[in-house]
Amino acid sequence: MPDVMRGRVIMHVDMDAFYASVEAARNPRLRTVPFWVGGAERGVVLSANYLARTYGVSGGMASTRARRLCPAGVAVPPDFDHYGAVSAGVFALFDQITDRVEAASIDEAYLDITGSQRRLGSPRLIGENVRARVADEQHITCSVGIAQGRALAKLASNRVKPDGLLVVDPGEVVALLHPLPVEQLSGVGPATASTLHKLGLSTVGQVAHTPVSTLRRALGARAGQWLSDLSWGHDESLVVGQDRERSIGSQTTFARDTDDPEQVGTELLRMAARTAGRMRASGLCGRTVVLDVRFADFTTITRSGTLRDPTDVTDEIYARARKLFESLGLQRARIRRVGVRVEGLVPSDQAYRQPALDEPERGMRQVELAADDVVYRFGAHAAQRARLTRRTLSNPESGSPGITSVGGTA
Ligand SMILES: [Mg+2]
């Protein structure tokens, strides 16, 4: 493998068992048991850890079926706010590799690293670097495939999943592809596969040696041409850089509509703490604090305020959210739901380039980082603010993050 790959170089990065891995990362007790993320009684399995998979549990399966296959397994309700925050952290890391990042889903992206090699080294080095940083910063694993096209890169990452890296040398593409079953090619679903099987084609090599006119007739002009090209490793589709709107936040629906400013204040603090914790976990800081208030009649208002410096500190986010709330001047308005989020996210190592211990209010950040470490090792209730240990909600953050339900998403 040469140090610099000629032509376009595309990297596909896919988190392994994303929701399940994120839950295990923040809950030590889940690291040694089979579990899945999804409804406990009804609903489907969204993501299963690799231990549960050994029992045959897999994503998309009905939860009741998973329960029969693995009676001792733990069902963890999903916490999409948290997965979104971890995802934002991963994508912030991608943005430091290249400005050509295309999100395929919350846990999967294509990166055009053609122009990154001069700055960051060989494709393999870039891939190893991404894997190490995802592991260090988010405590989860990912699989990386690197090749001269998107479809090949994805195929490569799938082959080494979980926790692997495969760089496909341009000279080895055909040897890699031709023995594979057609199902492994990107875009070949069950319908296409069955059409190909009817033509007697079951491997990529057989497709490659079939006249393109035959493929175009059977599959349609576009799909036939694409498959013929891809079977020889020709894959010209581009990675589209996107502007992603990113924010990290949390919201709470009260068990009963409330007009008690004290109760709202406690919730604002809880959500500021949760938001700040997610930001630190994601390695992100932000300057714009956004407050959402929904009233009993379901009308919603949004107010935002911008801080002088990006932050990931609870007290700074809480103070601004509280000020925004007070500026509404609500008199006995019945509130149904409140939400706090932070926008204008930047990587923390940029926001905190210089140690700011001389500024007294930033000392709080060191305290919170130390508490994060305790939570990572021992679970959530090991470090909690006194004001937040009172339960006032229908859906309070519980002692075992992920095992019981967390603040609602609308
Ligand atoms: Mg994935």
**Sequence of secondary-structure elements:** EHEEHHEHEEHHEHEHHHHHEHEEHEHH
Ligands and ions found: magnesium ion
Main structural class:
alpha+beta
Distance between the termini: 49 Å
Q: What is the mean pLDDT?
A: 86
CATH class of the largest domain: Alpha Beta
Keywords: Cytoplasm, DNA damage, DNA repair, DNA replication, DNA-binding, DNA-directed DNA polymerase, Magnesium, Metal-binding, Mutator protein, Nucleotidyltransferase, Transferase
Family: Belongs to the DNA polymerase type-Y family.
EC number: 2.7.7.7
Enzyme class: transferase
Key phrases:
alpha+beta; DNA polymerase, domain 1; Dna Ligase, domain 1; 3 domains; 16 helices; 12 strands; binds magnesium ion; DNA-binding; DNA damage; DNA replication; transferase
